[in-house]
């Protein structure tokens, strides 16, 4: 605001300078896309005015301290417009974004990837590109800000989350989930700019939508403004108003896509392809930009660098306030997201206790018990569920839920919004200060796929609690019974998939999910009760090796049974029957995590799998299991979709029983 | 309407009777859920009044002819309330829904599955349960009705699509995509009842939403009414008004969840569990329903059967009109969805031509050429894309797009709405009359997962055209480059996944997708150009066997290279190098469809795979490939996410090259 007011004192000169600053963006965008011969100039050129005003007059960030906790978060939800962000980063002076990086736009190893990639360059707060993810992730960021502010004080936590969203972002379903949640929680520091250019890839948006977007956002509880997205004063006033609002804001910015390209602007031709040398020359002339490609005159660059200087001042003031705050150290600590060692100590004690008691519970129930311990021992965890709290068992005693009037709680009712939940959790994790976990049924991982993939791609510690993990859920039937979901998740790079077999493994898997700070975990849990299977007392976390021999027969193995989750108990029963009835010595291997098993040495993996024939048992699709059973092995699981019936009937119906394992064994080793 | 007016003549008696009819539903619901000891009584009891009025006074269907093309479509989007549908089916007299089926609710093999399952019982128009799918699929049904009406006349195509949706359906993101599209296309015969009971599983909906739902639907172009959902006259008037509207309708029905259960109604306790014997007894008393469990007195049953008689009359009248219509036969033919044999003849000619010409094109381009032939030879196909028309190449010459003012076209601009598109295609397929296909990028299969799974579960012929199928898309980077998606789709039961290697296989795979009437197909296509690889002239569709030996070396095989899509060409080059440089005779096997290969005889599969060591090459995740390469084989593909760079750089960077295959071979067979 101060900067905004300051500019008014010498409006004429400031306007001229700001116009030049905007042209610098447009020129850099045209040049970079042209050199790459690939990319999207339309959005960055259309939104160059908005971005200039936002960065020049409002935004709070310090390129030399890109992780400063109280920086504003800038989210380019329309990620195909990545050149807008790269141009801004060069102009305000992020040290890792010299002009050479813009010249290497979209080339191997460049920081200037086709879409903004979290971790590639400083100041990129999240990966975007799949439309709608940015706005939905931003909801989590804005929520994190409010929660940290309540914990540590508004004097040291007070920043905004700015989003640039396109028509695509707002057509995607995830945007509905996101804005409904943001409006409900009155996340007033979330400010969304809609690049309202009426153009999508296929042509005018009128080909596919007639929605009254402003009315839609108002219905969701947003403060809505509608402006000319090329009028700098209108933009500045709208941002100032939005910052005053008690609701989240939508600023509809009516823009011309590709603004500045005299012959192509306003058409889908500027959306996703270089403008061509001739049009770029014409644009230079029309803008009055006589400078060479990739060249920004020193005075204009100097004007842009003022943004960084303002940010640095603000950061210095914040450091002073933080030093004075009783919560300064705690904030710095929270942002590191270090799970205290007491959590792990308590979890080991939990394991010892239940090993002795041989506690038989559903693993979803075991997870609830484990969460009770974790949530007691650390404040970092933030729970939630997509309206299945008492099925996922994700709430623990004393957890207060968050509402628009009270952000001091630790539990989020995400609503029936799996995708929005997953994206919001990404935002909570990216913002810093929290380790989010959230529940739904495993089958509804489908709905959250887009955001789960981004958790993995961004390497964020988000923990998915996915219960009702097989036909074991029973009567709800095939729509609710996961079949292909384990394969889908296991095939996803950078994602831990845990399917614990009993209460002990559940505690171990939770511990591993907490230890793996650089990746998301999915903990897949049963609805039905499962016996405690672990025999030896051990402080070792056996799940940490991904797979291990749970039962080794007295005689040399004639067979190895591989299983995960609820099917490990069935394998154990089968092993007993094989020995009792036929004196066939069978080992049972529990495989709670394929990913971790893959990371073990070849020697360890061989010792676990061994040379004897193998049968895998899992109430899911076969895909992937052949890696472990080999060509001579067998698989007992699901061949198609499930059915609606009590769980025990279904296991019999689909032949996932000890008897069936015994019969298959007899065929296999005869 | 006629029936609605008729009732007015003797309103008093009619009201009493209709009240009894409603109580019959409530009693059957309570009894069935109690007997199953599982299920959701709350929604059916809350919406029993709406359902009674809709069925008693309006709906047009004939239980003895459940596939009558001009029937109204009834969509229970809130599928957990399945007992509402089963009670209705029993009451109006579907022959396959005797009282015994209600008594077997949620038991193995019963028609009364936990959620309505398409194909299990007559009159179930679609599978529901995953929330939001029903309303989104209904949009496709209502669209199909409009399109058929334009083709064959309003005199013989004139029916409504009625949807019951819950809070969950409307919170899910897919609902946004659906209502935006429905409003845009002014699908005025789509009438959505919102079970506005303010209760979700976790408790009051105010825990997670503050949305003004009515304003939201108005923004999307719906005609919106808000009524007391227990007031029969208000319900009837609202339906009558909705039928007059030129827009799609939302009728907000304010209801009490579990209405009729005196101590529990209005609370989440009635949502998902039996009410208990005591509460059921109290409800019977409060309703004045003195009848035994599962018993409906003859006069009330008789009143319900009147619905069927009215429907039978309407069907008879329709038969007369259809016989008189010049388009009657065509409609009957269209509904069968028989692709004419000329399509397949033309496709064979296409293959012969391009075999001779050795046409080198991207398989997405080949698909466009194939579609040109298909769309020329049949009117059944309806194309579309989620705003990537000119990337997916899904439109062919002369295809007019559909708009609110003109339903005579064959191309749908679905907007940036992958999930909504997939669900709408399910609706088009389920309705009958069309074979829909629709395009997006393969990576965005993620967004459509929920509906793709239902295509498979329902066995619907929906064809997904998914282009940009690997790192071969280049600069757009890891968010756009599929890795785990092939595994995710291949693991899905009942889904054909085709990844053709060249123009010939593309034509073959399209042919197979058209031949497989009972299942969806995903055709996965490259952005980059691919050489024509097929050597021998052959009218045989070699892709029909799923995998086949494309190149057999002159000498006995020392190695088999397995690949799909764009990597088959790389494998061929490697085979040439292996022979030229090291005299290693390597066969190349193209595997366009794992599912079809699985269906071949063991002898055929063995002849293709052979005994020599195998290397699989696919620019995707390894998961699943071990089934084909065996324990001694190798895999060359992606180990993690992709990157942003030109495609050729990426193939080199990730080591998916002929050179890398040669190096791996030398290690493998040394």
TrEMBL record, chains A, B:
Listed EC numbers: 2.2.1.1
Catalytic reactions of this protein: D-sedoheptulose 7-phosphate + D-glyceraldehyde 3-phosphate = aldehydo-D-ribose 5-phosphate + D-xylulose 5-phosphate
SMART domains the UniProt entry points to: Transket_pyr
Molecular function per GO: transketolase activity
UniProt xrefs under CDD domains: TPP_PYR_DXS_TK_like, TPP_TK
InterPro entries per UniProt: THDP-binding, Transketo_C/PFOR_II, Transketolase-like_C_2, Transketolase-like_Pyr-bd, Transketolase_bac-like, Transketolase_BS, Transketolase_CS, Transketolase_fam
Annotated ranges, domain Transketolase-like pyrimidine-binding: 361-532
Cofactor(s) for this UniProt protein: thiamine diphosphate; Mg(2+); Ca(2+); Mn(2+)
Keywords: Calcium, Magnesium, Metal-binding, Thiamine pyrophosphate, Transferase
CC cofactor note: Binds 1 thiamine pyrophosphate per subunit.
Gene3D superfamilies: 3.40.50.920, 3.40.50.970
Function summary: Catalyzes the transfer of a two-carbon ketol group from a ketose donor to an aldose acceptor, via a covalent intermediate with the cofactor thiamine pyrophosphate.
NCBIfam families the record matches: tktlase_bact (TIGR00232)
Quaternary assembly: Homodimer.
Family statement drawn from the similarity comment of this UniProt entry: Belongs to the transketolase family.
PANTHER family in UniProt: TRANSKETOLASE (PTHR43522), TRANSKETOLASE 1-RELATED (PTHR43522:SF2)
Protein's recorded name: Transketolase
Source organism (scientific name): Phyllobacterium ifriqiyense
